[in-house]
Amino acid sequence: DGNNKSTLYRIPKGDYDLPEDVVFSSRDVALLNLAAAVWREGSLSRDAKTAQIKLASLGALVDETLLGFAPILSTREPALATLREAIDKSVQVSFSYLKPGETTAITRTISPWALVNHEGRWHVMGHDSQSNQERTFLLRRIVSTVSPLGSTPAIPGPAGIADRALRELHDLYEKNTATLQVKPGTDAASSLRARAGTKSAEGSLVVHFTDADVFANELTSWGSDVVVLDPPELRHQVIANLEALVRAHG
User: Fold this and answer.
1) Average pLDDT of the chain?
2) In Å, how far are 92, 148, 149, 156 from 152, measured between CA atoms?
3) In Å, what is the CA distance from 37 to each residue of 27, 67, 74, 85, 135?
4) pLDDT 10s digits, 112-170
5) From residue 136, how far is each of 142, 196, 207 by CA, in Å?
6) Would you tell me how many other CB atoms lie within 10 Å of the CB of residue 5?
7) pLDDT the model gives residue 138
8) Which of 43, 71, 133, 239 has the most CB within a 10 Å radius?
C-alpha cells in the first residue's frame, strides 16, 4: 500500500482498436501526423487530439520522405481557441462584435457550431440568441475576450454545418465581383491575378470577393497601384479609407 511503482494500468484492446476494415500504411500515418502537426496545440479540437493519440499508438513506420513537409497554420485570432473549446463542450459564448461602418460594438451571445477558414480568415457559424437565427461572424471583428457561458448549454447545430457554412461563403465569393484598374508589375497585380476566379477584361481585372469591408481595406493597402472602377459602393469605401489615412497622417 502506498507504493505504486509496480502498478500497471491496462486499457482493454477492444475499447481502443480501430475497426477491422480500417488499415493505415506507413505513408497514411505520416500524412495524418503531418495534418495534425500543422495545427498549433491550442487550435486542435478534442476529437483531433484523441485521433493524434490513436495515431501514435499504431506503431506503424513513418514515411521519412514526407517529413520535410510540415507547415504550421498560425491562427492569429485570440478568439479561436476559446471558440474551439466552447464547440467541444457545447456551451454558449458571448463577445463584443463590431460591424463595418459602426463605432459601437454590440454584445452577441451565440451557440457556436463550426469554425471555418475562408480566404485565409476565420469565421464562426452558430445560433445567435439576439436574432434567434443562424449567423456567421468574422473573428477579426470580435473586439473583446470571448466568454464561455458554462451554465448555458448551446443549442445543438444541424449536421454538416461546417460544410454548409463554407458553401455559403463560397457562393457569396462567386456572387461578388469588382472591376479594378491595376498597375502592371506590382505586388497588387501579382496578388489579385492569383485570386481564384480572377479574369482580365479590356486592360482591367475582374476579381471576386466575399466581404466588401475587408476587401476595401485590402485594396486601400495598395494605394495608387489599384483603382476601383466598379461597383460604386466599393469605390466609395476605398476612397473613404484613403481620406481617413490622409486626415490621420497628412
Assistant:
1) 84
2) 6, 9, 5, 12
3) 15, 11, 12, 19, 31
4) 999 999 988 999 999 999 999 999 999 999 999 999 998 889 999 999 999 999 999 99
5) 12, 22, 23
6) 4
7) 95
8) 43
**Residues 246, 169: Cα–Cα separation, whole Å:** 33
Looking only at the bridges linking them, the beta strands covering 226-230 and 177-182 are antiparallel
Supply 230's cell numbers: 466598379
Q: Which residues of 52-88 are buried (b: 16+ CB within 10 A; e: fewer)?
A: beebeeeebeebeeeeeeeeeeebebebbbbbbbbbe
Q: How far is CA 205 from CA 188, 194, 196, 241, in A?
A: 11, 11, 12, 21
C-alpha cell at 159: 449536421
Which of 132, 123, 122, 128 is CA-nearest to residue 94? 128
Retrieve residue 121's grid coordinates. Answer: 480568415
pLDDT by residue (tens digit) across 96-106? 999 988 889 99
Over residues 42-47, the mean pLDDT reads: 56
pLDDT at 81: 87
Cβ–Cβ contacts within 10 Å for residue 139, how many?
21
CB atoms within 10 A of CB 176: 16
Q: Report the distance separating Cα 240 and Cα 213, nearest Å.
A: 11
Question: pLDDT tens across 181-208, in order?
Answer: 999 989 999 999 999 999 998 789 999 9
Sheet holding 204-208, edge to edge: 199-201, 204-208, 177-182, 226-230
Under 8 Å between Cβ of 42 and 109: no
Look up residue 144 and give its DSSP letter: S
Compute φ and ψ for 148, nearest 5 degrees.
-70, 140
